[in-house]
Design goal:
Length: about 220
């Protein structure tokens, strides 16, 4: 999934209002930040096979450290602990952990059976949503739309930047996501890995920027209006 991970981050802002949107985006895509690093280091491997799924051309051959269920639990705990260590916010830390773990669940739904349970294990899991382009667009599109609705109802722009930065992010995510299935496959693995890291380097700070220009609408205030 791509925009589905962002949907979790947007919706989580309602559950964890004290956690910055930048942190929530970082948590939601964290496994996909570890993955390109390990690909570039030669630790994890994938192949580009045109037509491998209806949505993209990636065959994830070996990625137990970034994407096994066990390691996802470890990463979730680690990020939650780091967040708690820095912010001393127990509820926020819990949500950071949940959002990291949500990545595996969404990948489990969308990938072909390629997700390991633990490093070294032979079982591979995945429900193959990506085998159907319409189903992927419906599921991910609904998630994205609902999450946008939740986010704009639970936050309010403090200034023009808070409105513009948010909606430009949404537009850019859709512009990257929608043409994907019709685009030519990427030339090689390194390009994919660097692209992934570059997108994170843009979207995580962007999340922090949005968060500084929007404020959380309290439940009581929104009930009155
Ligand atoms: Zn992933």
């Amino acid at each position: 999934m791509f925009i589905g991970h962002f949907a979790v981050a947007f919706a989580a802002k309602k559950a964890a209002p004290r956690v910055s949107l930048g942190t929530l985006i970082f948590a939601a895509v964290f496994l996909d930040a570890v993955w390109p690093l390990l690909v570039l280091l030669g630790v994890e491997r994938f192949r580009i096979v045109p037509g491998y799924t209806a949505v993209n051309a990636f065959e994830f051959v070996h990625y137990p450290w970034s994407h096994s269920l066990l390691m996802t639990a470890v990463w979730s705990l680690l990020l939650a602990l780091v967040y708690f260590g820095v912010k001393r916010d127990r509820a926020g830390a819990l949500w950071v952990g949940i959002v990291v773990a949500s990545h595996w669940v969404l990948d489990f739904v969308s990938h072909r059976p390629d997700l390991p349970l633990y490093p070294g294990g032979s079982a591979r899991l995945g429900l193959s949503l990506w085998n159907s382009l319409p189903a992927t667009f419906v599921v991910e599109g609904l998630m994205f739309g609902l999450a946008i609705a939740v986010y704009v109802r639970s936050t309010r722009a403090k200034d023009r930047s808070g409105t513009i930065a948010w909606w430009v992010l949404i537009g850019l995510l859709l512009a990257l996501y929608l043409p994907g299935p019709w685009s030519p496959p990427p030339p090689n693995q390194q390009v994919v890995a660097w692209m992934g890291l570059a997108l994170l380097a843009i979207f995580v700070p962007w999340g922090y920027w949005i968060d500084r220009h929007r404020q959380v609408v309290s439940a009581r205030a929104s009930a009155r209006t």
